[in-house]
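Incident log, structure service

09:12 report received: a user says their structure output differs between two submissions of the same chain.
09:20 pulled the input from the user's history:
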Amino acid sequence: MNETFLYLSVNPFETRVALRENGRLVSYRAERSRAASLVGNLYKGRVSRVLPGMEAAFVDIGVGRDGFLYVREAGAVADDFNELFLDADDQPPERRPAGLPIEDLLREGQEILVQVIKDGLGSKGTRLTSHVTLPGRFLVYLPTIPHYGVSRRIRDDGERKRLRAIVESFGGQGGWIVRTAGEGQGPDELEADRAELVARWERIHEAAEKAHAPSLIHAELSPILRTVRDLFTEAVAKCWVDDVETYQEVLEFLDANDPALIPRVKLFRQPGDLMSAFGIDRELEKALRPKIWLRSGGYLVLNQTEALVAIDVNTGKFIGRSSLEETVLRINLEAAHEIGRQLRLRDLGGIIVIDFIDMERRENRQAVYDALARELEQDPARSTLLPMSEIGLVQLTRKRTRPSLDRTLSRPCPYCHGTGRIKSLPTLCLEIRRAILRTAEEEQSREIFVVVHPEVSQYLQGPYREILRELETEHSLQVTVRESSTFHIEQFEILA
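09:34 re-ran on a clean worker, output below:
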């Protein structure tokens, strides 16, 4: 039986959300009060710069750093408030290329309505679109795009046809997509959601006409209500909340949108932290490690770089019972399942390359590929999977709208400057030798003082003491080594 639990933890400094399926953590998000996500917000912005060579424009939305608007996201013109950002589990209509260069669509100083589709990552500003969509509880509204669809996670053909027939009967302008939570809902529930979204769009349109750029026109729901709207479905057995005020807020939201789920909301009354009590913090510690052990004894190594995410599959301790091919197949199948979970849990996006263990048989490669494809179908984020190569490499892209879990919970090491490596002790000792000889020659001095980190000092006067002896006997230098615990291990100072 598939048991799914949702955990909502709130304090004055951060909001944390966790989702568990079958006892395993599959999704976690933390939003700090000082670094709230802007995804979904609508702004009236001002075009600050048009870049024909990039087919894009910078737009000032009043958040300190200009957002980036590609020509394909600019629509016909920004005055036509078109199709926007869709929630991750919904099928978007195909982007329709404008067919015009960016300089014919936008001009500097022009005021336009845009929506944030991706938070700023690193040195990059927010990604923007002038295509607008409004997500509700059961539906997504596309105000000016006549597109009708049903979430890909609703798989029953009869149910898909029923839901599509309902939204196609709505009439009026724009298009509609039925969200996953809309499965099983009747015409009355969907009509109520439709009416609320249409009214919301009318309020947004009126506010945008009156506002001066740059200004916020419409803010997305709070992280808690956004989570309840997007993740709290019939599949969730219980939703735990550790804050009384938030608990009441969730109940009020469900009372207005989906009263049947109210009995499943539970207030966590025990002392201590909700995430710690349910063991989620312990699972998070594992989620930040590059090595992920599989139950069979194999393991994954996951490296996230600026350009892509690389995942390597290894046999580890698993030796199998029959042939090597069967052993490799079993590990790769288990790895495919775990990779699907890790992508969701770590919220990895962009280009992802997976190096499965080499398999001789084509049918085995296909079986692993199919297993990975099935896992990606369960993933709310959209992805594109390419065929497996002859050497077992699989490439895919996964939609990224916010920083990954690793980028959210950690920062680059100031000690190694994010490389994950520091110079070895022999390398440092040989660098010091060269620096001593250079200083002695430049200063014409026979007496040299060297200040180093204590660990380097121990190595220089222990296993590598031959260096000091060689400097004294071959170069007639008197070298005195001093220690400084405040030094970076790679730092040293030569004094004559």
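09:41 both user submissions now match this output. Likely a transient worker issue. Closing.
09:42 reviewer note: The first helix runs from residue 102 to 105. Confidence is low (pLDDT under 50) at residues 76-98.
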